[in-house]
Amino acid sequence: MLEVKNFTKYYDDLCAVKDLSFRIEEGEFVTLLGPSGCGKSTTLHSIAGLVEPTDGSIHLRGTDVTDLPPEKRNIGMAFQSTALFPHMTVRENIAYGLKMHGYEKADVQERVEESLELVDMPDHGDHVPGELSGGQQQRVSLARALAYEPDILLLDEPLTGLDRVLREEMRGWLNRIQREVGVTTLYVTHDQEDALSMSDTVIVLDDGRDQQIDSPERIYESPANEFVAEFVGKSTQFTGTVTQENGHTIVQNGTKSIELTESDLTDGETVSVFIRPEDIEVGLEQIGADNEFSGTLTDIANLGNRAEVTVTLDDGTTALAHTSRFPEMTVGDTVYLRFDTGRVIVL
Asked: Where is the ABC transporter domain (predicted)?
């Protein structure tokens, strides 16, 4: 449906994106995820025709659109800023996009009303943007982008700036609309929760290069490298040397011996291991389990549905774990961390 081939973009001597290739199938929701400056917005804007590639090509429904101006590409786009005309009503904002795409006057009103129904705002057509909340403005922006039935919808960090509760509400709403309409969508964000909760496929970018293109589950459970493991989700990391002891694979990290289920590692190999906080159990009593280490509880963050605790292990390493909410523990307690061998990510 959309194919980006060997896309490269330089700004003078600065390489923003290098040799990026990916494909999006009909109806997919794909997210470009990465830190600020990684090249995700440059990629999105090139697909939209707002930025000219230095090299590579962009194909939409089998047609090379690399050199076509934005108005010649049937693409819908919604920005973080919404880009609504402040002096126009909601209906006029949506109608403007339809007129720009050549809709006949007789068809514009019908499409405007259908668009307002789609985004659950049929009673807000006569309001101007300044009379709407941030979430409502984003809904209007999306309605305008979808009204002329684009081949693909591009979303450039549309939820940034919304408060946490509204952001979570808008995620579910946006996902529902996308599935209902069936529009192919490319979403840009630096927020891992957006990417993991909404996407069919996630493209993780760093320094202008793709680090992993995969399903949300595999991005989180099987990161391709240390950058992905550290950027997508929190982890406790240990680095050590692989040894084989009595048929078991061990990573020796200082005084700690971390047992793995991996069997294809080489003796003497240096690896990094990552354990997600939800995979670490914390207790006040030692039970003698594999991969059990003692430390001092140094912080408790009660997050409502769970607590996030920070533990300084006996060798000075900091570990992060999730517990049930409001645990019966106190900063300064000696605690024991333990995790299953099968939940260790090895890179």
From this structure: 2-232
